[in-house]
Structures are given as structure tokens and as C-alpha cells.
Amino acid sequence: MKLKHIMFFLLGLVVFFSLSACKKSENVYPDGAEGVLTGHTGCKNNGAKRNSSPSQAVQPVQECIEYQYNGENTLLINHINAVFNCCPGRISADTQFSDGVIAIVESEAEHGCYCICHYDLDYHFYNIPPAVYTIRITCEGGEVREYKVNLASTLSGSKCWDSPLQDQ
């Protein structure tokens, strides 16, 4: 009887470790994919004061995600008119790949001035096979921008939103 309990216990351990060994990593999708912020512009609008009221004649500025894909494995993403402090210090981004999502979290090192600006940020992603992905950018202010793309059928595209910052 004791041998029977030991056998069931050992069998349970084998099943547990077999299932946990097959679990796919959630931090990397697809295998070997990597992304990097390659550059950004300076302030494009001379720094609008926070909480300033936009003039009535000003049209909303479009914040956009644009992408270009080479059809094999390289994806270029541009975040046009991203909003940061006009004295941001170092602008940086973290990238992750999980369950068909290309996630980008943008940040600035400092909130050095009492004004905000538009910047264009450029990203290069490597080892991205053709498939359907959601590009998700979490902006410095916490806003989330999402854009679903099918890299198997469309090699370039863009999606835009009204920016929370108006040109002055």
C-alpha cells in the first residue's frame, strides 16, 4: 500500500514538471525578437505651457503610429507627435513581446520644465516574422495607443489620434 502511494506521488511530480517545462515564456514573442528606440527628434513645437488654453482657430495635432515592414523580419515603427516634457532629459523606451503584442513603454528621465512638446520617436524591431500583431505604446503620461497590424498582408500603414497637446 505504501509503495502505491509513493508511485502516485512520483507520477504526480513527473506530470507537474513535464507540464511546467512545456510552458511558453510570456516575455518573448516571437523567439529572438528584439526592439530598440533608435532616435527621436527634438521638441517640434517650442514648448506649450501646461494647462494653457489653445486658441479657437487651432486644429488638433495628430499623434500617429506609422509602420513599415520588409516582408521578412524587420519592422520599423515611428511614433509621430509623442508628447513629453520640453526638458525631458533622456527619452527612453522598453520593449516586450507577448501573445502577439509588441509593447512599447516610453518614458522621460526628467520633468525639467513646466511645458510639453511633440517629438517623433523611431523604433527598429528585428526577428519579427509575418503575422498579425497589436502594436501597443504606453506613453509617458499613461495614455495607451494600440494599432492592430497584419504584417503577412500589409507592409506599411498608419493610425492617428488627436493629440492631448495642441500647437500654440
Structure description:
With 168 residues, this protein is mainly beta. It is built from one helix and ten strands. The strands form two sheets. Strands 1, 2, 3, 4, 7 and 10 form a six-stranded antiparallel β-sheet that branches. A four-stranded mixed β-sheet has the order 5-6-8-9, with no helix packed on it. The model is unreliable at 15-28 and 54-58 (pLDDT under 50).
Topology:
Layout: H1 2-22, E1 34-40, E2 48-49, E3 62-69, E4 75-85, E5 91-98, E6 101-108, E7 115-126, E8 132-138, E9 144-150, E10 156-162
Parallel strand pairs: 6-8
Antiparallel strand pairs: 1-7, 2-7, 3-4, 3-10, 4-7, 5-6, 8-9
What fraction, in percent, of the residue positions are helical?
Answer: 10-25%
Distance between the termini: 83 Å
- Indicate the overall shape: globular
> Could you tell me the strand content as a percent range?
over 45%
- Per DSSP, the total helix count is 1
Category from helices, strands and their pairing: mainly beta
The whole-number mean of residue pLDDT values reads: 81
- How many domain regions? 1
The total strand number stands at: 10
The major sheet is characterized as: 6 strands, antiparallel
Assembly type: single chain
Rg from Cα: 22 Å
Poorly predicted spans: 15-28, 54-58
Write the element-wise H/E pattern from the N-terminal end onward.
HEEEEEEEEEE
